[in-house]
Amino acid sequence: MNQLTQAPQPLVLLSSRELEKMRRACQLAADLLNHLEPMVQPGITTQALNDEAERWTQAHGAKSAPLGYHGFPKSICTSINQVVCHGIPSPRQILREGDIINIDVTPILGGYHGDTSKTFFVGQPSERARRLVEVTEECLRRGIAAVKPGGRVGDIGAAIQEYAEAQGYGVVRDFVGHGVGRQFHTAPQIPHYGQAGQGEKLRPGMVFTIEPMINEGTWKVKVLADKWTAVTLDGKLSAQFEHTVAVTETGVEILTLPCALG
User: Fold this and answer.
1) How does strand 186-190 pair with strand 213-215?
2) Residues 137-189 pLDDT 10s
3) Which residues of 118-135 are buried (b: 16+ CB within 10 A; e: fewer)?
4) In this predicted model, what pLDDT tens digit does every residue of 30-82 receive, in sequence order?
5) Maximum CA pair distance of the chain?
6) DSSP letter at 239?
7) How far is CA 108 from CA 9, 18, 23, 111, 158, in A?
């Protein structure tokens, strides 16, 4: 789950002790996605995925951060095909052969949030869906590779935007990555587009998500009447991958491995 760009929060630098707690929460998030992956099959409902995620999360001594967050009604986000983000699980929503689905999870363990998401294939995807998902995962890799102490937030977005647009895809502007720790959303905000060398300087102790949403067509989106579900304006496919990362003294640590890049 990612915040809208107009809701900045204070910047928090994590101590080594806090970072260790974040590692545990983030590993739990990665494990949760891995646990759900075998369930992603034609015929299952997104409500069933939600219910298993909630059961598993509670069984591991954690809480689901999305549940009740600003009124969000479910424990995870399930975004299918043209849904960009914040899809709401439903017993009426059944996965079908050829769908793609992003599952976004954020368990709270020991007071810290582990935030990650991955786009899965339901059965055998079309070639256009497969290519979009592969490019989106590569966008995440390139964004993470741009993180280093002394770098700038704009380096991340520039790396993602340059690659995505070179492949003919649109980069969503309306939703961004964000700082995360004891709070679900803090500074810095991490746009997935921008100019290298611009924006806030990256410092050791910063922990944030990088979560590019890449659209098959236009980058523009609209939010449905439920006030949560964001869809592509042109109805074409969208994919997303997300990791929580920490800026270190020498580079970057991916805290939510092994979900999308493992």
Assistant:
1) unpaired
2) 999 999 999 999 999 999 999 999 999 999 999 999 999 999 999 999 999 99
3) bbbbbeebeeebebbbeb
4) 999 999 999 999 999 999 999 999 999 999 999 999 999 999 999 999 999 99
5) 48
6) E
7) 19, 14, 12, 6, 31
Residue type at position 120: F
Is the pTM higher than 0.85? The answer reads: yes
Q: What is the DSSP string of 210-226?
A: E--EEESS-S-EEE-TT
Domains of the chain: 16-254 (3.90.230.10)
Residue 149, classified by CB atoms within 10 Å of its CB into exposed (0-12), middle (13-18) or buried (19+), is: middle
Q: Are 1 and 69 in contact (CB under 8 A)?
A: yes
Nearest residue to 106 via CA among 141, 137, 143, 62: 62
Is a pLDDT exceeding 80 seen at residue 262? no
Q: Pairing relation of β-strands 63-64 and 243-247?
A: unpaired
Q: 3-class DSSP state for residue 149?
A: coil
